[in-house]
C-alpha cells in the first residue's frame, strides 16, 4: 500500500459521440466540458494521494492518438497564470490538459471527423509509456520494489470497431505480460465487447455509467484506489461478460465461429483453405461442420451444401491428390478455413 501508483488515462474524444451525448433529448445529457471538469477533479485526487504518484493522459481522436499530459514531460510553468486560490501543481495540470484537448479538437478537419477513433493507438502508446517508467533500467530508482504500480483507465463513448479486434487483443496480452490493470468507464452508448474482455482479462473494473451526473462519484469510488488497495475493499465487478470475437474474414462479431487449429484464426463459416496460414482441409470435415452448424453465409460467399460431390466445389478451389481442397485462384476473398487438414475444426 506504500507503493507509488502510475495512472495512464485514455480519453475518447470523438466529436460525433460527444455531440450525441450532449443532446437535450438524451435522458441524462453529458457535455464534454462537464466531463472534463469531473475528470480533472479525479486526476488531482490521484496526484494528491501520494507524492510519488505519476500520471499520463492520452487522447484518442479520429484517425490519431496523442499524449495530452505527462508528469515526466517538462512543462512551461510561466505560461500558466498564477492563482492564489488554487494549488500550483493542480493549476498547471488543469490548464495543460484543458488547453491541449481544445487544441486537438479544433485541429480536426471536416473530412476526418467521421474517421474511426484510434483507441488502439492510444492504448499502445500508454503501454509503451508504462514499460518505460516501470523498467528498472530506465528508472532512477535502484530498488525495483519502489517502481510504480501501473494501471490504465479507458473512458469510452464510442461503440466497438470490429476491425480493431486483433489489435485490441494483442494489447490485452501485452498488458497481461506487463501486469497492467485496465479499467474501463463506459459512457453514453451500449457496452463494449472488446473493452469488457480487456477489463476482465487484466483484473480491472468495467463500469457502464447510466447517470453521467454522478460521474465524479464513480471515478472516486471505483477507479481511484490502486490495484494493491483493491484487495482490501469492495470494487464493482462485472455480472456478465461478453466473450464474443470478431471473425478474421468479415470483421463481424460472431456468436459461433470456427477456429483454425494451426494459427487460431477465427472465421464465421467453414471454408477450404486458411488465408492466414494456407492450411488445407478435407472435404468431409467441411461438409460435417456445415451440416452441424448451418447458418446464413455472408453476402457474396458461395454456399457449401451438405452432400455436394467433390467435383462440384466452388470455382475457387480444386481437388488435390487425396481429396484435399486446394485453392487455385483467389477470386473470392471470403474463402477462408476453419480446421486443420488432419483434425476436425474447433468450435
Going by CATH, the architecture of the largest domain would be 3-Layer(aba) Sandwich
| Biggest sheet: strand arrangement | 3-2-1-4-5-6
Count every beta strand, where a strand is a DSSP E run of 2 or more residues.
12
Which secondary-structure class do the elements indicate?
alpha/beta
Output the radius of gyration.
24 Å
Protein name: Transcription factor Tfb4
In words, what does this structure look like?
- It comes from Irpex rosettiformis.
- This is Transcription factor Tfb4.
- With 347 residues, this protein is an alpha/beta fold.
- It folds into 2 domains: 5-230, von Willebrand factor, type A domain (Rossmann fold), CATH 3.40.50.410; 244-347, no CATH class.
- The chain is 30% helix and 16% strand.
- It has 9 helices and 12 strands.
- The protein has a 6-stranded mixed β-sheet, with helices on both faces. A two-stranded antiparallel ribbon has the order 7-8. Strands 9-10 form a two-stranded antiparallel ribbon.
- Helix 2 runs parallel beside helix 7 (215-223) and helix 5 packs parallel to helix 6.
- The longest helix has 19 residues, at 88-106.
- The two termini are 43 Å apart.
- The model is unreliable at 302-347 (pLDDT under 50).
Amino acid at each position: 500500500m506504500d507503493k507509488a501508483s502510475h495512472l495512464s488515462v485514455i480519453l475518447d474524444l470523438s466529436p460525433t459521440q460527444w455531440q450525441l451525448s450532449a443532446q437535450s433529448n438524451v435522458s441524462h445529457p453529458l457535455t464534454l466540458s462537464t466531463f472534463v471538469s469531473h475528470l480533472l477533479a479525479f486526476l488531482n485526487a490521484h496526484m494528491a494521494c501520494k507524492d510519488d504518484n505519476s500520471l499520463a493522459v492520452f487522447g484518442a481522436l479520429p484517425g490519431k492518438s496523442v499524449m495530452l499530459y505527462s508528469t515526466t514531460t517538462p512543462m512551461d510553468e510561466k505560461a500558466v497564470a498564477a492563482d492564489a486560490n488554487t494549488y500550483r501543481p493542480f493549476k498547471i495540470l488543469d490548464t495543460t490538459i484543458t488547453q491541449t484537448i481544445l487544441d486537438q479538437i479544433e485541429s480536426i478537419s471536416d473530412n476526418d471527423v467521421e474517421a474511426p477513433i484510434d483507441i488502439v493507438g492510444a492504448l499502445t502508446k500508454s503501454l509503451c509509456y508504462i514499460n518505460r517508467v516501470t523498467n528498472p533500467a530506465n528508472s532512477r530508482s535502484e530498488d525495483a520494489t519502489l517502481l510504480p504500480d501501473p494501471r490504465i483507465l479507458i473512458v469510452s463513448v464510442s461503440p466497438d470497431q470490429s476491425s480493431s479486434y486483433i489489435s485490441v487483443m494483442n494489447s490485452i496480452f501485452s498488458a497481461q505480460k506487463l501486469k497492467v490493470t485496465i479499467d474501463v468507464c463506459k459512457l453514453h452508448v451500449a457496452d463494449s465487447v472488446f473493452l469488457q474482455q480487456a477489463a476482465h482479462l487484466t483484473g480491472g473494473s468495467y463500469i457502464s455509467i447510466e447517470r453521467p451526473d454522478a460521474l465524479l462519484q464513480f471515478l472516486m469510488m471505483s477507479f481511484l484506489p490502486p490495484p494493491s488497495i483493491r484487495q482490501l475493499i469492495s470494487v464493482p465487478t462485472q455480472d456478465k461478460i461478453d466473450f464474443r470475437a470478431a471473425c478474421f474474414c468479415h470483421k463481424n462479431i460472431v456468436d459461433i465461429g470456427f477456429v483454425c487449429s494451426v494459427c487460431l484464426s477465427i472465421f464465421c463459416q467453414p471454408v477450404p483453405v486458411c488465408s492466414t496460414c494456407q492450411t488445407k482441409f478435407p472435404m468431409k470435415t467441411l461438409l460435417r461442420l456445415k451440416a452441424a452448424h448451418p447458418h446464413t453465409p455472408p453476402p457474396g460467399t458461395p454456399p457449401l451444401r451438405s452432400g455436394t460431390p467433390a467435383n462440384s466445389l466452388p470455382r475457387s478451389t480444386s481437388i488435390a491428390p487425396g481429396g484435399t481442397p486446394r485453392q487455385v485462384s483467389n477470386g473470392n476473398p471470403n474463402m477462408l478455413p476453419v480446421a486443420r487438414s488432419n483434425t476436425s475444426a474447433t468450435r
